Amino acid sequence: MQQTIKFIIICQILGLAISNNSIAQCNDTNFSFQTGEIVNYHAYYNWGFIWLNAGAVQFSVESDHVDERPAYRMKAYGATYKAYDRFFKVRDTFESKVDTLHLEPLEFKRITNEGSYHAYYQYFFNHQDRSISAIIQKEEEPEKRIEIPWQSCSFDILTMVYKARNIDFSHYQTDDKIPINMIVDGKIHNLFIRYLGKETIKNRDGRQFKCLKFSPLLVEGTIFESGEDMTVWVTDDKNRIPVIVEAKILIGSVKAVFVDAKGLRHPITAEIN
């Protein structure tokens, strides 16, 4: 059960899958979301022919300040339902603070509680010397403090989710590979996503959406095999909200499914009524 419903999988899916940020697009201006937005998802795990609704994930945006600098505070929280807690309890939090002008990261925090595994990550992004100060503490290991060179156009997972929603997707052709740089577990990974064009998709409650479709390159690890065994569909409108994200894992597959949203900056015009 440990490999089935980890919230980190869903957050990585949502982040990696729509993150097509190229070097020329580091300083995006936000047009897709606003303070007060809340988006909810169900997290499903496939066991044989059965899809189990095992948990929920919520993304939210609030206003904040960092050193008197206006900022967005973005938060993603995931938890298993109580009925699944006895098998494997998950309570995970991701939080990023970014400047409101160009969505550059200022701070990032991740608190992981998954069964008996606990971890804490915190990154401070130094804009003057282009470095990242990281605090990492895993399970019973001693706290580790490291300095990481801040590679151009590199972002934490959660910041990447929101930056990607401000990309002009019309610049890409089907099958284009688009590079991304992401810091995960204290390391910067050079990855890419493959744009797969447009498609109409129906979610589990029967709602249909006109979507943009992608497949990201994954980093090999304990959950994923390396390769492009993940697919994502995001709304083909100004919101760029992930509707369905599906990935194969070592045992079965996982899926994040859009449930509802409030406080959106724009109407969801991609939905087919």
Describe this protein's structure.
This protein is 8% helix and 52% strand. The protein has 273 residues and is mostly beta strands. It has a 16-stranded mixed β-sheet that branches. The chain is globular. It has three helices and 16 strands. Helix 1 crosses helix 3. It has one domain (7-272). The relative contact order is 0.21.
Task: Write the SSE topology.
Elements: H1 7-17, E1 38-47, E2 50-66, E3 69-80, H2 82-85, E4 91-99, E5 105-114, E6 117-126, E7 131-138, E8 144-149, E9 154-156, H3 157-164, E10 177-184, E11 187-202, E12 208-216, E13 230-235, E14 242-248, E15 253-262, E16 271-272
Parallel strand pairs: 9-10
Antiparallel strand pairs: 1-2, 1-15, 2-3, 3-4, 4-5, 5-6, 6-7, 7-8, 10-11, 11-12, 12-13, 12-16, 13-14, 14-15
Instruction: Pick out the low-confidence regions.
Output: 1-9, 15-24, 220-228
Query: Measured on Cα atoms, how large is the radius of gyration?
Result: 18 Å
Order of helices and strands: HEEEHEEEEEEHEEEEEEE
| Structural domain tally | 1
- Tally of DSSP helical segments: 3
| N-to-C span | 38 Å
Helix content: under 10%
- Structural class by sheet pairing and helices: mainly beta
Average per-residue pLDDT, rounded, comes to 82
